[in-house]
Amino acid sequence: MPKLPKRYSAYCKHGLVLGLVVGLSMNLVACSGTMPVQPSQAKLAESEVALTEYRSNQVEVTVVRQQYVWRLPDANQHLAQFTHHIQVDGSVPSRLQDFVISYRKPQHLSRSASADNALMTASMVDEVQISRNGQFLVRESIAPAFTGQQSYRRLEAARLKVGDDSYVLTVANGFLHRPMWLAIFAADGSPVYRIGLPHGHWQFTEHADGISMVDTSGSGRRLLIRPALQ
Hints:
Number of helices: 3
Organism: Undibacterium umbellatum
Protein name: Lipoprotein
Shape: globular
Largest sheet: 6 strands, antiparallel
């Protein structure tokens, strides 16, 4: 039986692959900086995007654990329990009491499209726009991690009343198993809270002082919204 070499750096340097050596199989260590991103790394990157959070000084967040009231998952009705809620299909603006909400959904190219055309549309992301009494308030992009490329991706919105202040809650996703985008805006358009959730299986509940969101395991967050500092 031939004697195995002690070092494999030369093989990494020249890109050679070792096969079977007289019935012995060997596991190779990848050369640094030469291997493509592995699927597990891609999932981790998406998870990191999904869990990014922003909160203003108006918001207090606590972790909650409670019983999940199971309902048949419906990707179109995440905010159905809210007093005032709408779905925005992307074709025409939708009115939510005194707010008008638009969902811009650019047409994504199919996988068969040319690489040049794909590069041209790479920057065309979904976008939510909000106006009130004719005044433009919000224009915010939604990363593809939360929408995918399906033509039936969707946006929902609900109006929150906390004390004397009004807020707009928006959620967007493409599939129940994909990450979900959630954002809350004040009546003047300023962002109050924003987070990416790792999937679309969430139960949202309206409260007099904010909202709560719980997933199918019963874990979630309670958002308390205080009056804005003057």
